[in-house]
């Protein structure tokens, strides 16, 4: 199962800073629209109040009747806009149609008092209206009657005014929001720059670069992180130093007694002719040599895990030099050891570690190939980096064993002398040089082990 995806710190900051801004902007737009509607409604109510009172003044009692002095021109003015026209109705008593548009909806309740306008909403032909009703008394004291005047106006204009007002308000706010978002993003980028620099410093460091990190300009929080990392690096450096010291002490304490044991056994073998004793001494000598080799390989493996120096070197010249050093042993074993490849190939690497890797590969080839075999060292340039290969025409390995070749303490042969660490060291050295070690069977027989160096 893969690791769960996590938002970066930059995205989390943008999310927490910009999302509330967007929510507040949308909420502010809704509130502004509601306020605009309220103020537009107040304006319409004032206009309707003036209209209904003006219309009520045009209705004059004459004796027991009414004189409605409402010229046609005024009526045309009220009804001139078919989309948002003003409709009216005069009734007396309230509800008994006299003049105007008799389809105006009645008020839900009667006005609270005479000359007190009552505002309410209604529908006419499916369109929303804002309506005002005004009751006016007329007639003699002993025969008072009530006249109701209603004036209605569509709310389309109200909504249009509110929308235009909100648009005029929100457009600048939107521009300011975009500008603020850009400033927030730029601020986050600038604020995270110290972390980006810290990440780059850590990524560009080699495994053994344990010197303190230096950041002079950074926020206090990043300084605290840098101090914590420097403290950890200091502890790691101290631990590595102690480990190196232990390795050096172990090399001295283990190699010297084993070398002395081997020398004493060889002297004892020359000083005795008893076959039983000679066989026992031979076994002791073989065990001591294997122990000495195991100690050497363990110490080498420890050094490759804790040390890595990358300096300019000529890989081709180094390979030829190592081949010359191993030529006497190859001749003694009846094998042909040679070199093929580039005359010169410059790389960045550790001279001692690459010599150790080559020595392990040549030693394996000499140890596990029969007499008369050919061992070839190759150095060439590939698209993915330099290649260093050691190949032989010996029996090779079984295909199913190839996956285990670089495992520690795994051995592909029961021949005495090996300890199963040589190829593990080769793989570790390849990793220290930004590459890897690979193994390949050759046809019709043989084995190639190569290092791809980045």
From TrEMBL:
<protein>
    <recommendedName>
        <fullName>histidine kinase</fullName>
        <ecNumber>2.7.13.3</ecNumber>
    </recommendedName>
</protein>
<dbReference type="InterPro" id="IPR003594">
    <property type="entry name" value="HATPase_dom"/>
</dbReference>
<dbReference type="Pfam" id="PF00512">
    <property type="entry name" value="HisKA"/>
</dbReference>
<dbReference type="InterPro" id="IPR004358">
    <property type="entry name" value="Sig_transdc_His_kin-like_C"/>
</dbReference>
<dbReference type="InterPro" id="IPR036890">
    <property type="entry name" value="HATPase_C_sf"/>
</dbReference>
<dbReference type="InterPro" id="IPR036097">
    <property type="entry name" value="HisK_dim/P_sf"/>
</dbReference>
<dbReference type="GO" id="GO:0005886">
    <property type="term" value="C:plasma membrane"/>
</dbReference>
<keyword id="KW-0597">Phosphoprotein</keyword>
<keyword id="KW-0812">Transmembrane</keyword>
<dbReference type="Pfam" id="PF02518">
    <property type="entry name" value="HATPase_c"/>
</dbReference>
<dbReference type="InterPro" id="IPR050428">
    <property type="entry name" value="TCS_sensor_his_kinase"/>
</dbReference>
<dbReference type="InterPro" id="IPR003661">
    <property type="entry name" value="HisK_dim/P_dom"/>
</dbReference>
<dbReference type="InterPro" id="IPR013727">
    <property type="entry name" value="2CSK_N"/>
</dbReference>
<dbReference type="Pfam" id="PF08521">
    <property type="entry name" value="2CSK_N"/>
</dbReference>
<dbReference type="InterPro" id="IPR005467">
    <property type="entry name" value="His_kinase_dom"/>
</dbReference>
<dbReference type="GO" id="GO:0000155">
    <property type="term" value="F:phosphorelay sensor kinase activity"/>
</dbReference>
<keyword id="KW-0808">Transferase</keyword>
<feature type="domain" description="Histidine kinase">
    <location>
        <begin position="249"/>
        <end position="454"/>
    </location>
</feature>
<keyword id="KW-1133">Transmembrane helix</keyword>
<keyword id="KW-0472">Membrane</keyword>
<keyword id="KW-0418">Kinase</keyword>
């Amino acid at each position: 199962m893969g690791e769960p995806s996590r938002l970066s710190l930059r995205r989390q900051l943008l999310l927490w800073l910009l999302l509330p801004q967007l929510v507040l902007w949308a909420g502010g737009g809704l509130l502004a629209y509601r306020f605009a509607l309220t103020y537009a409604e107040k304006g319409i109510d004032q206009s309707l109040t003036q209209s209904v009172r003006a219309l009520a003044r045009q209705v004059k009692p004459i004796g027991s009747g009414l004189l409605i002095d409402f010229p046609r021109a005024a009526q045309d003015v009220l009804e001139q806009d078919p989309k948002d026209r003003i409709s009216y109705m005069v009734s007396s008593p309230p509800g008994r149609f006299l003049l105007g548009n008799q389809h105006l909806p009645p008020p839900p309740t009667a006005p609270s008092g005479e000359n007190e306008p009552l505002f309410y909403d209604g529908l006419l032909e499916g369109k929303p209206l804002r309506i005002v009703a005004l009751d006016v008394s007329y007639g003699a004291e002993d025969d008072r009657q009530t006249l109701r005047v209603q004036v209605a106006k569509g709310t389309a204009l109200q909504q249009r005014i509110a929308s235009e007002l909100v648009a005029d308000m929100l457009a600048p706010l939107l521009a300011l929001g975009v500008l603020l978002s850009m400033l927030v993003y730029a601020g986050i980028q600038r604020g995270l720059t110290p972390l980006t620099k810290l990440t780059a410093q850590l990524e560009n460091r080699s495994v053994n670069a344990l010197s303190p990190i230096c950041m002079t300009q950074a926020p206090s929080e990043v300084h605290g992180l840098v101090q914590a990392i420097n403290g950890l690096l200091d502890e790691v450096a101290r631990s590595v130093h102690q480990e190196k010291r232990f390795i050096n002490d172990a090399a001295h304490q283990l190699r010297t007694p084993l070398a002395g044991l081997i020398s004493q056994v060889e002297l004892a073998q020359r000083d005795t002719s008893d076959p039983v004793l000679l066989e026992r001494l031979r076994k002791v000598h073989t065990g001591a040599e294997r122990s000495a080799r195991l100690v050497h390989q363990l110490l080498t493996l420890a050094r490759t895990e804790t040390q890595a120096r990358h300096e300019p070197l000529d890989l081709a010249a180094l390979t030829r030099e190592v081949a010359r050093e191993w030529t006497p042993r190859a001749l003694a074993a009846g094998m042909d050891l040679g070199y093929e490849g580039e005359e010169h190939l410059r790389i960045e690497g550790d001279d001692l570690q690459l010599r150790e890797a080559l020595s392990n590969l040549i030693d394996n080839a000499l140890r596990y190939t029969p007499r008369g075999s050919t061992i070839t060292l190759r150095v060439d340039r590939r698209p993915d980096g330099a290649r260093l290969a050691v190949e032989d025409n010996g029996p090779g390995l079984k295909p199913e064993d190839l996956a285990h070749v670089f495992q520690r303490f795994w051995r592909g042969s029961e021949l005495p002398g090996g300890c199963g660490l040589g190829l593990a060291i080769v793989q570790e050295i390849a990793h220290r040089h930004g590459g890897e070690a690979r193994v390949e069977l050759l046809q019709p027989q043989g084995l190639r082990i190569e290092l791809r160096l980045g």
